[in-house]
TrEMBL record:
Pfam families: ABC_tran. The keyword Nucleotide-binding applies. InterPro entries: AAA+_ATPase, ABC_transporter-like_ATP-bd, ABC_transporter-like_CS, P-loop_NTPase. Gene3D superfamilies: P-loop containing nucleotide triphosphate hydrolases (3.40.50.300). PROSITE patterns: ABC_TRANSPORTER_1, ABC_TRANSPORTER_2. Residues 26-262 form the ABC transporter domain. It comes from the Bacteria. This is ATP-binding cassette domain-containing protein. Keywords: ATP-binding, Nucleotide-binding, Transport. GO terms for molecular function: ATP binding. The keyword Transport applies. Signal peptide: none annotated. SUPFAM superfamilies: P-loop containing nucleoside triphosphate hydrolases.
Length: 272
């Protein structure tokens, strides 16, 4: 193999994509995205496998949230394509996009609950908004999801009466009520102490085992990745450095991946 040039900024991008063994739920094909002069995604090729918990890892500001927004059609690529179950998101008409979004459940950083509604109504909201289910059925679903996340006793509480961890669990219950094929977690561990992070990771695993589907977690918390990731994609400078089954990535020979996954201060990744 030829040695990468010292001045090649992609020299750590070995381009290795180890197969996950299943089809992709979401694919990025040569995606470019810039905001003004700030080029964020620069020819990104990434697949998110079906039925696994995947983690997109990467240093701050590399564009992990930007990726998630492309998946649900909140941002469009300048070039390239984003496919969800093989369908091109940028080419969807408004009605198709609306239908496609129903495949997704999204857990935002703080749970993104409506402050004026109690917990129960927050979790029921997507069912009332997007389905014609009757109140009895809605009640069954909401109670089941609240039980799953351990919040059945708090359904009358308002969001500002809940702790950060409870708000995240409530956001998780709400993300699940429409039985999504794909669940996106935007830094689920942010603002949680290590014990609550560990408990949330366990909950994510348990619920994934029960429900299946593609879970996509973005984080820079390596401990969470060690706990729950089945598939990992490491993003840096707008492209994937390496991706594959978690155990193989934790065993990677790529110096950048090794440094990032071990949290070491010495290595190719600096403060830039
Ligand atoms: N709508 C937007 N307009 C302009 N710039 C944006 C927009 N969205 C994101 N950016 C820029 O894109 C870059 C990547 O942001 P992004 O939030 O995706 O990073 P991240 O990898 O999720 O970071 P972190 O781990 O710190 O949350 C940042 O420099 C951000 O300022």
């Amino acid at each position: 193999m030829t040695q990468p040039r010292e001045d090649d900024e992609y020299k750590w991008h070995t381009g290795k994509k180890r197969p996950s063994g299943v089809e992709d739920a979401v694919e990025f094909v040569e995606v470019h995205k810039a905001f003004g002069r700030n080029k964020i995604l620069r020819g990104l090729n990434m697949g998110i496998p079906n039925d696994k918990i995947s983690m997109i890892l990467g240093p701050s500001g590399t564009g992990k949230s930007v990726c998630i927004k492309h998946m649900v059609g909140l941002l469009y690529p300048d070039e390239g394509d984003v496919l969800v179950h093989g369908e091109s998101v940028p080419n969807m008409r408004d009605e198709e996009l609306f239908e496609m979004r129903k495949k997704f459940g999204v857990l935002f950083q703080d749970g993104a609950l409506f402050g004026s509604m109690n917990l129960w109504d927050n979790v029921a909201f997507p069912l009332r908004q997007h389905t014609d289910k009757g109140e009895d059925e809605i009640e069954d679903i909401v109670n089941r999801r609240l039980r799953e996340v351990g919040l059945e006793g708090s359904s009358d509480k308002m969001p500002n009466e809940l702790s950060g961890g409870m708000r995240k669990r409530a956001g998780f219950a709400r993300a699940l009520v429409l039985d999504p094929d794909i669940v996106l977690f935007d830094e689920p561990d942010s603002g949680l102490d290590p014990v609550r992070t560990a408990l949330l990771c366990e909950l994510i695993q348990e619920i994934h085992e029960e429900n299946g589907g593609a879970y996509v977690v973005i984080t820079h918390d390596i401990m969470s990745a060690k706990r729950v990731a089945e598939y990992i994609a490491v993003l840096w400078k707008g492209r994937i450095v390496e991706s594959g089954p978690a155990e193989e990535l934790f065993d990677s020979e790529n110096q950048f991946v090794r440094q990032f996954l071990s949290g070491a201060s010495q290595g190719p990744l600096g403060m830039e």
